[in-house]
């Protein structure tokens, strides 16, 4: 009976399969990072639109700001919408608590799936090291079975086994860099949004006292 797997896969062994697994994880890490960057780009754009809404609320009125907000789109829109609708009385509730709740919801959305990057950054070096150990064990077993030794033969097997460690470290570096970049970007957007929410709360309080 013929082997249904291609020779390139059936001859890989556990070490080779681990290398393929780490390469697949690298692709996943990049895909997740791109998806997160797309979301953060949209959030940043909607926060910039929210800044114009808050500026209009301060310069003119909450009603005019609400009209402008109605023409905007983006993930951060709901934060300002929750405050303005409640301040204008179209939706019952406290505008401050409503905006704080929407902020937390948006912060959770921005952090979603980034744990995959952190996990890959922590795990991949150990997966690579495990692959190297398996490769070294396989190399020494092959040397013992063949009865041949010497530095040249041993070094070839060990150098091939070290590829797994190199791949694991490379994937971990990729994941850590992308994770830190996304975290810093998310935190910067979150700080900007918090400042705008504080400013809108101030405008709403002044409008209530007027």
Helices and strands, in N-to-C order?
HHHHHHH
Low-confidence stretches: 1-10
Strand content: under 5%
Structural class per helix/strand content? mainly alpha
How is the main sheet built?
none
For the termini, the CA-CA separation is: 88 Å
Distinct helical segment count: 7
Q: Mean of the pLDDT scores?
A: 87
Strand tally is 0
**Number of spatially distinct domains:** 1
* Mass-distribution shape: rod-shaped
Radius of gyration: 27 Å
- Percent helix range: over 70%
Features:
210 residues; single chain; 0% strand
Describe the structure.
- By secondary structure, this protein is mostly helical.
- It has one domain.
- It is built from seven helices and no strands.
- The longest helix is centred in the C-terminal third of the chain and has 59 residues.
- The chain is rod-shaped and about 95 Å long.
- The N and C termini lie far apart (88 Å).
- The relative contact order is 0.15.
Task: Summarize the structure in short.
This protein is mainly alpha-helical. It has 7 helices and no strands. Residues 1-10 have low confidence and may be disordered.
């Amino acid at each position: 009976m013929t082997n249904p797997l291609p020779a390139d896969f059936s001859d890989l062994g556990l070490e080779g399969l681990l290398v393929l697994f780490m390469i697949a994880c690298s692709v996943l890490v990049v895909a997740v990072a791109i998806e997160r960057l797309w979301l953060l780009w949209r959030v940043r754009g909607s926060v910039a639109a929210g800044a114009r809404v808050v500026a209009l609320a301060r310069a003119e009125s909450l009603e005019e700001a609400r009209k402008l907000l109605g023409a905007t789109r983006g993930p951060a829109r709901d934060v300002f919408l929750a405050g303005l609708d409640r301040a204008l009385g179209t939706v019952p509730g406290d505008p401050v608590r409503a905006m704080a709740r929407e902020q937390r919801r948006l912060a959770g959305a921005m952090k979603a799936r980034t744990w995959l990057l952190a996990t890959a950054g922590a795990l991949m070096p150990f997966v690579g090291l495990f692959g190297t150990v398996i490769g070294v064990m396989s190399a020494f077993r092959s040397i013992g079975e063949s009865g041949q030794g010497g530095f040249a033969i041993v070094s070839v097997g060990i150098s091939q086994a070290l590829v797994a460690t190199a791949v694991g470290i490379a994937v971990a570096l990729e994941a850590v860099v992308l994770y830190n970049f996304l975290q810093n970007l998310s935190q910067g957007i979150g700080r900007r949004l918090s400042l705008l929410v504080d400013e809108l709360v101030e405008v709403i309080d002044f409008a209530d006292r007027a």
